[in-house]
Each structure stands twice: as structure tokens, then as C-alpha cells.
């Protein structure tokens, strides 16, 4: 069990996906789960301030994480959840304790069933506080905005860097200051600043930590 937490745009998804492939583990993107609930709420006209209905949706949501795809109640929503609107909606809806309870239960069930690299905001602190390896992946703000901007542009989504920077700042602020499971580094997590590091270097750095912590004397990677 490898837990990767950190702010938006730090490179968690890219790294977690690659690590999972290297380790033969399942990659779990928990942000995608909150995004799925936000998308459903938006389609149902449920406001992110309606805690009760949001929780009901979270409990009823049939979320399936197949490799590289995510489905909601049987519909492929992989691309639909990657818009800036859903990013904001997910950040808002994820502050609701009932929504978090529903998602955390799903995440624990998956993590108990199989070996995972799970990424999000509260994996090492709340979801799996006894994870074998915990990484807090960070990068400086301008680098995170630059990466996310390039990612969106590659998908044909054009938004100014200024607006994106504002939205990411607001989102990280909300995710870090909410009462329930805010984004914070677990005391036993390894802090890694990926600013100025290539993706291969980040992967190697984490693999080194994984090898040192999970092997129990046996080589697994
Ligand atoms: O990782 P992401 O940017 O796709 O996540 C979208 C939002 O979901 C993020 O702003 C906060 C929330 N989130 C959360 O509260 N807890 C998690 N474990 C993962 C994501």
C-alpha cells in the first residue's frame, strides 16, 4: 500500500500511475471519485451546499475505477470530470463529511482487497494511516499551475494561466482548511518537492523509498 498525497498539480496522478505499473499494484485516483460525485450533483441540480442530498448521491453513486477509465452508474465519465468546473465542484463537495464517509468506505474496501498506489489528499492521514509508504508530493505554485495548464491545453481546454492560478489557489486553500480530513502531511510521510525534477527522477526517488520500506527483506521491484 503506497499512499501519495499533495496539492493539485503536484504530479500525483502521473507518478501514482507509473508507480502502480512498476509495482504491479492497482492505481486508485481518489480525486476522480469526488469528481464523479460532483459531476452527478451538477447534473442533478444538487447544490454543493446541500449536504444531505450530496451525501445521498455519494452513497448511491456506482463508481467503478477500471484501469485508465472511470464510470459512474455505468457511464464512462473519464473526460467529463476533468473540466475546471468539476475541479471546483469536487473541492466543494469533498468538504461535506457525509460525502467523505461514503468515499472513504469505498477506498478502504478497495485497498483492503488488493495492493494499491492510492493518491489524494487524506490517504496517509485518514484513509490508510497505516500505509506501508506515505509520500507527500509537492511542487511550487507556479510549476503546478504550468503543469496543469499544459495538461488542460493538451485536451483542448483553454483557460488563462491567471484564472487557473486563482482557481487552484482557492481550491488548495479550501482543501487544506476544511474541518474534515484537510490536506496535510502525515507526520510519517516523506516530503518530496518535485519542482524542477523530471518525472523519471521523481519515480526513481519514490521507488527507492518503496524498496526500503515494503520489502521486508525481499526484493519486490
Ligand atoms: O486530485 P483531484 O484534483 O482530482 O481532486 C479533486 C478534488 O477532490 C480536490 O480539490 C479535493 C478533493 N479530494 C479530497 O478531498 N480527498 C481526496 N482524497 C482526493 C480529492
Overview of this structure, please?
The structure is a single chain. This protein has 221 residues and is of the alpha/beta class. It has a single domain, classed as Rossmann fold (3-Layer(aba) Sandwich). It has nine helices and eight strands. It has helices at residues 12-23, 30-44, 51-60, 84-93, 97-113, 123-127, 141-154, 161-177, 199-214, and strands at residues 2-5, 26-29, 63-66, 69-72, 75-76, 116-120, 133-138, 190-193. It has a five-stranded parallel sheet, sandwiched between helices. It has a three-stranded antiparallel sheet with strand order 3-4-5, covered by helices on one side. A hairpin with a 2-residue loop joins strand 3 (63-66) and strand 4. Helix 2 crosses helix 4 (84-93) and helix 7 packs across helix 8 (161-177). The radius of gyration is 17 Å and the shape is globular. It binds 2'-deoxycytidine-5'-monophosphate. 2'-deoxycytidine-5'-monophosphate is lined by residues 8, 30-31, 34-35, 90-91, 94, 120-123, 171, 175.
